[in-house]
Amino acid sequence: MSEKAAKTEKKNDECYNTVAITNNVEALEFGRTCQSCAAGMAAGILGLTGFHGFILYFITVGIQALIWNVKAQGNWLSYFPERNSFTWSHGNGLLTFVLLWVFFYGMVHVY
Fold this sequence. Notes:
By secondary structure, the chain is an all-alpha fold. It has helices at about 5-15, 20-45, 50-70, 85, 90-110. Helix 2 (about 20-45) packs parallel to helix 5.
């Protein structure tokens, strides 16, 4: 049996605890929401406009990804069955970021 076939067979034999995976995804989403809120408030208070605000968002997303990677010790498959569940929902975070960015910008710099 080749090494590739052995890895495929091993992957097919793995079982996942769905409660633990659900908890991991919820923790990830909570962290993303908090990061988006903090970045949106910071961008609004600092008065960032245009691409500068989005650059701040993507920098904070990158920092958060590094933190999660260090926390998982680079072994994502121990906590998530596939990499997609780790990276799939940045759209909601971006909407939260824009909402708070506009709100705090308006409260600090317009009014």
